[in-house]
Design goal:
It contains two helices and 22 strands. The radius of gyration is 17 Å and the shape is globular. Helix content is 6%, strand content 35%. The protein is mainly beta and 281 residues long. A nine-stranded antiparallel beta sheet has the order 1-10-9-8-7-15-5-21-20, covered by helices on one side. Strand 2 and strand 3 form a beta hairpin. The longest helix has 10 residues. The chain starts with a strand and ends with a strand.
């Protein structure tokens, strides 16, 4: 993983392109996008990650079936969660089972406020150039360099964990990438709602499908993440703050199985263009 300052990446996302990154370690060095290592070969099909890829047509899209999920159009689709389960967390785990299309920057989770010229509050969890990244106020941006490309229209389990001592891991299909220890651990607070599939300050959106997201108030161990990536259920749900399985298949709401942070499709509980669509396999 490579660390860059939160302010510089906030500016990058506001411009919708990588532009210049400022390395957080050592001298303040400009890094052009051409210097970022290639993401490597396309990822092999993910392990089960909670459900098989059976029933896919030639384009990798699901045939009609009974397992619902949400499809995001890459333009402005979102799920809005007013009661943010990640508020005030020092330690956390973000998990998502997703199937991604498109390119560039795609955001899975966003909760931040942004004022031009100032550091952004909150956090981002998503994919840049096919590779997983997480961005946190007070800590910076971390990319899983060397991980396989994720824009392959296959289901993948993605996770990021941060321990109270600042140890950070990123995971793709249960495989962990080089840990970092953050110099500063700050709560990932923002006064804005949690958004799934969209970042309001930049209008950057997710293109692809989402069938499960969990937010924990603790850092899961590598063994625990690997078991969840293989399709297992959590054996210890201590500090599981929220879990959305998108199993409703219809309607304007998606339920948090923990009962505290249910969300609405789009921005309100009324049908609107920013609603993701229901699909199933």
């Amino acid at each position: 993983m490579r660390s860059v300052t939160f302010a510089s990446v906030a500016g990058w996302l506001a411009r919708g392109a990588l532009g210049l990154l400022v390395l957080a370690c050592g001298a303040r060095t400009a890094l052009d996008v051409s210097d970022v290592p290639d993401a490597g070969p396309a990822a092999p099909p993910a392990r089960d990650a909670g459900a098989p890829d059976a029933g896919l047509d030639d384009a990798g899209l699901p045939d009609a079936g009974t397992r619902p999920f949400l499809r995001f159009d890459g333009t402005d689709d979102r799920v809005t969660v007013a009661a943010d389960p990640a508020a005030s967390l020092d330690a956390f785990t973000f998990e998502a089972t997703v199937r991604l299309r498109g390119d560039g920057v795609r955001l899975i989770l966003s909760n931040r406020s942004f004022v031009a010229g100032e550091d952004a509050d909150g956090f981002l969890f998503g994919v840049y150039n096919g590779q997983l990244f997480v961005q946190m106020s007070g800590s910076g941006n971390f990319i899983a360099l060397g991980s396989p490309r994720l824009f392959d229209n296959r289901w993948h389990h993605l996770a990021a964990t941060r321990a109270p001592d600042g140890e950070l891991f990123l995971y793709v299909d249960g495989r962990s990438f080089r840990p970092d220890r953050l110099r500063r651990v700050a709560p990932i607070d923002s006064p804005t709602p949690l958004l799934i599939g969209y970042d309001a300050p930049t209008d950057i959106a997710l293109e692809g499908d989402v069938r499960r997201i969990r937010i924990w108030g603790r850092a899961l161990s590598p063994t625990q993440v690997s078991a969840l990536a293989a399709g297992g259920s959590p054996e210890d749900t201590t500090e599981l703050r929220a879990e959305w399985t998108f199993s409703e298949g219809m309607g304007q709401q998606t339920r948090d199985l923990r009962g505290m942070s249910s969300g609405v499709l789009g921005e309100t509980d009324r049908p609107e263009p920013s609603d993701p669509s229901w699909a199933s396999f």
